[in-house]
Amino acid sequence: MTRRNFIKWLIAAVWASILAMSALFMFRRFLGAAGHEAVAEPVTATPQVEAAEVKQLTEDAGPLLSFFIISDLHINSGISAQSSHLRKALEDIKTFGDQTQAIMITGDITDSGAPADYREFKTIMSQYELPPVYANMGNHDYYNVWIGRNGAWSQDTFPNGKTDAMARQAFTSMFNLEKPYHDVWLNGFHVILLSQETYVQERPQVGEGAWYSDEQMNWLRSKLAENKGGKPVFVMIHQELPPIGQDGGNHMLIKAKEFREILQPYRNVFVFSVHTHQDFTVATEHYIKETFHWFKNSSIGLVMNTRYENVRKDAAQGLFVEVYTNKVVLRGREFSDRTWIKEADWTVPLSS
C-alpha cells in the first residue's frame, strides 16, 4: 500500500469510527426516550479527532480524483504540427502516472473527421500508456462533408457523398460508444459528456452551433438527478454558452436556456467548454461564475490570441483538475515546456 493510499485508508477509518460512535449515541438516546434501562457504554478508546485534523489528513492524502481535460486537437493526417502537439501533451501527461485517473477530450479531435485523421489519432494514442480516455464531438468532427474525393476542401461539391450520420458513426466507433453523448463515474464523481448531434448536412440552420436533441437534454436531466449530497459534477461541452437568458446560434450551444435551467437546481456543477482556442496567457475570461462554475479551456492543436491568430506556434495547452473533499483546484498546463500557467490557476471552494 502506498503512503497516499494508506492516508486515504486512515481517513476512511477515522470517519467510520466517528459515525459508529454517533450511531451508538443516538441508539442510547432512543432507548432512554422509550423508557428502557440505560445501556452501559462499552469500554472502548474513542478517537478524539477534530475537524481541522480531518481536513489536514485529507489535504495530506492528496486529491480524491485528478484528470486532464484537453481539446481541439485538430488532428490532420496531412499536417504534422497538430500531431506533434498531441505527442508533447501525452508525453507530459504520462509523467503524472497514477496522479491522474483520466483524460477528457472535449471535441474537435480531428480537423475534418476523415478516416485518415482518425487513423492518425489512433496511431498516436496507441503509442502511450495512458489512463482511460473519454471524449465528445466538436463541429470539426463533422467536417468530412466538406472534403472532396481528392482529399481537399470542396465546398462546391458539398456534401461530397458524406452524411452527418457517417460522422457520428466514425466517432462512436473510435471510442466504442452507442451514442455520441455518455457519462462515467470516476472515484465516485460524475463526469457527463454532451455531444453535438448533427451538422449542416442534416440541419443547415445549426451552422457551427451545438444542437442537442430533446432526448439528450432529457438524458442530461436524468443523469444530474443521480447525484446526491452536493458532490461536484463535471459537465463537458464543446461550444461556448451565449449570454444568460439567450439561446445560442452559430458557434454556440443552441439550447442554452434549457441547458442552464437543467443545471440550476444543482450546486457544485463544473462546466467545461472550448472551441475558441483562447490562450490562457491572454486577457480572455476563462472562468465565469453562474449558478455553476464555467471554465473555458484552451487548445492542443492551435492556441490562439484574442484576434484568433495562431501566433505562438509551439503552444499546446489544457486543464488539470484536482477534486478534494472541500474544493476543486484547476490549473492550466503548457504541455510544450511542461509548466503550469500562472494566469490559469483557480481554487473553487465547494458549497455545502
SSE run: HHEHEHEHEEHEHEEEEEE
CATH-defined architecture: 4-Layer Sandwich
Main sheet: strands, sense, barrel? 6 strands, mixed
Question: Helical element count?
Answer: 7
Average pLDDT across residues?
88
Number of strands: 12
CATH class: Alpha Beta
Question: Could you explain how this protein is built, in words?
Answer:
The chain is an alpha/beta fold and 352 residues long. The protein has a single domain, classed as Purple Acid Phosphatase, chain A, domain 2 (4-Layer Sandwich), CATH 3.60.21.10. It is 28% helix and 19% strand. The protein has seven helices and twelve strands. Strands 3-2-1-10-11-12 form a six-stranded mixed beta sheet, with no helix packed on it. A six-stranded mixed beta sheet has the order 4-5-6-7-9-8, with helices on one face. A hairpin with a 2-residue loop joins strand 4 and strand 5. Helix 3 packs parallel to helix 4. It is globular, with a radius of gyration of 24 Å. The chain starts with a helix and ends with a strand. InterPro entries: Calcineurin-like_PHP (IPR004843), Metallo-depent_PP-like (IPR029052), STPP_CPPED1 (IPR051918). It comes from Paenibacillus thalictri. Keywords: Hydrolase, Membrane, Transmembrane, Transmembrane helix. This is Phosphohydrolase. It holds the Pfam family Metallophos.
